[in-house]
Every structure is written in C-alpha cells, then in structure tokens.
Write a structure and sequence with these properties.
Blueprint (H helix, E strand, L loop, with lengths): L4 E6 L5 H9 L2 E7 L6 E6 H11 L4 E8 L2 E14 L6 E8 L6 E10 L3 H4 L4 E3 L4 E6 L7 E5 L8 E3 L11 E2 L6 E6 L2 H4 L10 H9 L1
Parallel strand pairs: 1-4, 2-6, 7-10
Antiparallel strand pairs: 1-3, 2-3, 4-5, 5-6, 7-9, 8-13, 9-12, 11-13
C-alpha cells in the first residue's frame, strides 16, 4: 500500500472568525480524534486535501505530519467527514480519526462495474444497482480501495450479489447482507416481447454510466 501523506498544523484559535480567516488563507479547520487520545484541533491546506481526495479517494489511510509549535509528530488517520459550503462546494471543515494498524476498523467500500451487460446490449434489458457499496471490518492494511466487478456477461433476470464478490473473508469481515443485490438486469416490456425499440438504443451508454 503506497504511503499517502498530508501536512497539518495544530490551531489555537476557534470559532467562526478564525475559521473564516483560515479559509481566506486557503486553509480549512479540522479535528483529529479517536484512539483514546485527546481531540486535536488542526488546520490544513484545502489544496492539499483536494489533491489527496482526487488521487486516492476518501477512504484512504493517511500519514499526517502534524506541526505543533515547531514540534513535529506523525499520526495515521482516515477522513471521516468533510463539510462543504452548500452554494460554493468549497471545503468548510474536515474530521479525521486516528488509526492503529493492529486494530480492526469499519469501512465502506465502493462497488464498480465494468462493461456493458449482454442483457442490455443484446436483450434490451435495464441495469439495476440497488447496492453500490458494502461495509467491511478489517485491519487498516487489508482495506481495499474498491471492488471491480465484470458485468459484461450479465443477462436478463441474472444478478450479482455480495456473496459473489471475490473477497478474502479470512481478512475481510463482510458486514453487509451477503444476499444483497449489487447488479441485476431487469426485463422491459419490449424485451419480453422479443423486440428492442429504437427508444432503447441509448441503453448501452446509460448502462456504462450506471455501472460506475
């Protein structure tokens, strides 16, 4: 697992005024908590967090370098909450939790589908995705970024469930119901009549977007 890093400073000022001043400087307030240690108020560059999220997503384990009055320390953390401005979508506040590499954590992992199902491109069906992520309990070092699923051979009335995922269940405890449906192809009236009207010709493009 490649190391992902970010720098943060311990902040001494609190409230709306200092928070606004931080954001004017391109920084955002944050809090670090957990692992039976005191909460630590922080600030970090919005640019750094945006780049990290773009490159690695929101469920990554991060090595945070913390500067506290010139004293440096390091914590392994995960982002647990990110507040954004309702109009501008600018970051407003971030929450991080301390991670101990030998202590299991609960995580949510995204399911990504690849390919256009046979049931869509040849049979005129519609792709359905009732569940798009699953919950796991695992050690931080065993945490997957996501699960890639090939759905290109899925036919009408066929499904892919959580139980079908190639998960190492000795390392990853699945908390989501194993019978939960991840992908299914539902028939349409036209497909049941053996027809595929022109109105459904765009279903392949929609299925590609829906699978991601």
């Amino acid at each position: 697992m490649p190391e992902i890093t970010i720098a943060a400073d311990v902040r001494a000022e609190f409230g709306k005024g200092p928070g606004r001043r931080l954001r004017m400087e391109g920084r955002i307030p944050a809090i670090l908590y957990g692992a039976d240690s005191p909460n630590k108020p922080l600030s970090l560059l919005e640019r750094d967090l945006a780049q990290l999220l773009h490159a690695h997503g929101s469920h990554s384990i991060i090595s945070m370098a913390i500067n506290e009055g010139g004293q440096a320390s390091e914590e392994m953390v995960m982002l647990t909450d990110l507040q954004r401005h309702p109009v501008t979508s600018r970051m407003v506040h971030a929450d991080f939790i301390r991670i101990r590499m030998d202590h299991p954590i609960h995580v949510t992992v995204q399911i990504i589908g690849h390919g256009v199902p046979v049931g869509v491109r040849e049979q005129g069906g519609v792709l359905d995705r009732p569940v798009r992520e699953i919950s796991l309990r695992c050690l931080p070092g065993d945490m997957p970024n996501d699960f890639d699923v090939d759905i290109s051979n899925l036919r009408i009335n066929e499904t892919i469930r959580v139980s079908d995922l190639p998960i190492d269940r000795e390392k990853l405890a699945v908390l989501t119901d194993e019978d939960s449906v991840l992908f299914s192809i539902a028939p349409t009236r036209a497909s049941m009549m053996g027809e595929r009207p022109e109105a459904e010709e765009g279903a392949e493009e929609e299925a590609e977007e829906e699978a991601e």
